[in-house]
Amino acid sequence: PIWRNCAIIGGMIRQIVANQPAMWRAALRRAMVPRADDNKYRRGTILIRGGAMVGAGVLCATAARRAGAGLVTIFAGARDRAIYLSAQPGLLFSAESFIFQRNVWRTCLSPARQNRAQVIVIGPGCAATRATRRDVLAAIKTGRATLVDAGGITAFANRAPLLRRALQQHPNPNIIFTPHAGELAALNIPAMPPPNAAPDAAPNAARDASPDATRDAARDAESNDAAKIARAASAAEYLGAVVLLKGATTVVATPFGESATARTPPAPRQPMPQPMRPPVSVF
């Protein structure tokens, strides 16, 4: 539904919409309205790889449950268990082991537990470490719907070719990356040539794209919708996955040249509180 009534601008499909619940209600109606024979597994199960920044994982789990997911499991450090469960008592919790972390995560992703992890979310609150990078690659190999965010993206800083190879070896149309401008810049994705560019344009563009230039482009893109669409579309084409570039104007780009924008409406202005005057004594 997101691509209906779109205009073609600069060779890409573009639509500016208000990023409000009405935009997604039709797609989520079936999940939001329970049926008599529903159970938690039929309504969708999500496994979230959390990190030390617990707030991001809590927000992700809250959004998943409000969107209608039947079962949400958090995989994070044992010391954070009480924080996650006090914020969302309906969550399941799987504690990582710092000694056998790799085995525990792979156990969560195993086919035997697929009914508890139909969708995988990795990155919210995670540090950009080798362990996070390894966990992202393990999630990609499962072939399940996967959303990669925050630390799951920056774990591949300057390693975009490694991520691209993994996606090419395990093609999956249901993988989504949700960076903001800085996280996308950290990947340092080589510039893609225009459709009519000469065959040798790509290597030259990649050689000229220094990390500093990419970061500058990321800052400029925040105030330039056209540049932001181009960056998201280029990243989606390079990775072969959907890229949702967050910001005041959010861009959703597919590897097939489709792009849509959602501009967040400005928040209504609130009146400034008046300072309280001290009471006047009558004596």
How would you describe this structure to a colleague?
By secondary structure, the chain is of the alpha/beta class. It has 11 helices and 12 strands. The strands form 2 sheets. Strands 3-12-11-10-9-8-7-4-5-6 form a 10-stranded mixed beta sheet, sandwiched between helices. It has a two-stranded antiparallel ribbon with strand order 1-2. Strand 10 and strand 11 form a beta hairpin. Mean pLDDT is 77; it is low at 1-10 and 194-209.
List the helices and strands and how they pair.
Layout: E1 7-9, E2 12-14, E3 16-18, H1 22-32, E4 45-49, H2 54-66, E5 71-77, H3 81-87, E6 92-96, H4 101-109, E7 119-122, H5 130-141, E8 145-149, H6 151-154, H7 160-169, E9 175-178, H8 181-187, H9 201-208, H10 211-221, H11 225-239, E10 242-245, E11 249-253, E12 259-263
The biggest beta sheet, please? 10 strands, mixed
Q: H/E order of the elements? A: EEEHEHEHEHEHEHHEHHHHEEE
Report the C-alpha radius of gyration, rounded: 22 Å
Percent of residues in helices comes to: 25-40%
- In whole angstroms, the N-to-C terminal distance is 71 Å
Overall average pLDDT: 77
Number of strands: 12
Low-confidence stretches: 1-10, 194-209
* Adjacency order of strands in the biggest sheet: 3-12-11-10-9-8-7-4-5-6
Query: Beta-sheet strand percentage?
Result: 15-25%
Total number of helices: 11
Task: Characterize this entry briefly.
The chain has eleven helices and twelve strands. The chain has 283 residues and is of the alpha/beta class.
Structural features:
283 residues; alpha/beta; ten-stranded mixed beta sheet; two-stranded antiparallel sheet; 12 strands; 19% strand
